[in-house]
Amino acid sequence: MYRAVVGIATVCALVIVGVYRSTEGRIRDNRERYLKDAIAQVLPDAARTVPVSVSPAGRLESAAVPAPLPGFLAYDAGGALAGAVVTAEGMGYQDNIRILYAYSLARDAIVGLKVLDSKETPGLGDRIETDPRFTANFAALDAGLDAAGTALANSIVTVKQGEKTQPWQIDGITGATISSNAIGEILNASAGAWVPALERDAMNVSIDGGG
Amino acid sequence: MATTESTANDDFVRGLWRENPVFVQVLGMCPALAVSNTAQNALAMGLATTFVLLMSGLFVSLLRGFIPREVRIVCYICIIATFVTAVDYLIMAISLELHRQLGAFIALIVVNCLILGRAEAFASQHGPKRALADAAGMGAGFTAALLFVGAVRELLGAGSLFGFAVLPDGFQTWSVMVLPSGGFFAMAMWLAIVEWVKRRQAGFTAAEASA
Hints:
The structure holds 2 protein chains of 2 kinds. By secondary structure, chain A is an alpha+beta fold.
C-alpha cells in the first residue's frame, strides 16, 4: 500500500515538475508582455522604460535586479522623461490586489491606473476595474508633496460615492466599499514611498539601462 | 472487435446527452454557474475540465491494478490535483488574460465532483480505451452544457457572443445575467428544457412500445 501511494506521488511530482519547466519560459514572456501592455495603457507616451527602485534611505536608484514590485521611469520617443510607472500591492476584500499606476512629475498627479491582478468578487468588487465612473478618478489624482518634500501633502483616500470634493480623493463605489477603499490605501502607501524619491531624483538617474 | 468499438462509442455518446454531467447528473454545478458569464470563459473552463478528465481518467485506468482499494480516493485526488496544476500552468502559458478571467476557478476544477466521480465509477473499472472514451464524452457534454448556459448569459447580459456584438446597439442588456443570479436563471431554464425534451422522448418510446 505504501509502495502504491509513494509510487503515485512520485509520478505526479514528475508530471508537475515537467509541465512547470516546459512552460516557465513562455509564462515569463507572457508576464513581460502583459506588463508592457499595461504600461502602454496607463502612460501612452512611454516609449522606453528604465527599472528603478527606492532605497531604504528614500533615494531613487537604478534597479539591476528585478524587484517583486517593480517601478520604472518612462521616457517618451524624444527621450524626455514622460513620468514614472509603479506597481503596488495590498489587501483587498478577497485577496491581494496588484495595481500599476502612472505618475506624472510635471502634473504632480497620478494619471493612469490599471488593476493587474485581483480576485475581487465578480460584479461587485471587480467594479474597481469595470466601473467607468471609478476609473475616471485616476485621470488626474492629486499626489503633490508637502513643503518639506518628504511626504504627500494630502493623503490619498477613498470617500463614499458622490462625496468627492478634493482632487486627492477617490470617489468610491457603493456596494464595493472594501475593494475601493483598498485601492485608496494601496495608492496612498505606494505614492507616499515613491513620489518623494521620484521628485527628488528622477532627473538624476542614469538612463543607459532598461529598454 | 466490433463489440468493443461500439461500446467505446456508446461510452462517448452517453456523456453528451443521456448522462450529461450538468443537465442530467447535475454535477460540477459550481464552475458551471460561476465561469459561464461569457461564452469564451465557458468554452475555456469546459476544455480545461475535459483535459483533466481525460488525463486523470487515463492514468487511473492504467494504474487501476496498482492502486489498493483502501487508498484509492487518496490516489485519485493526487492524480487529479496533478493535472489541475498542469492545466493551470498551460493556461498561463497560453494567455495570462484568460487565466485572469478564469481566476480561482481553475484551481477549483480539482473539487469538481464530476472528475472524481468518473474516476471512481468508471475509469477505475475499465481499460484505458473505454476510460478515455467516457472521459471525452463527459468532457464534451460538460463543455456543451457550459456553452449553452454561457451563450444565453452573454447574449442577454452583454448583447454579444464570444465578444462579437450580435444584438443591435439599442438592446437594453439584462445586467443580471452576468451576475451569479443570472447563472442560476439560465441554468434553471436549460434544466427545464432538457427535462421536457427527455420526457417527450420517453413518451414517444413508450408509445412505440405499446403500439
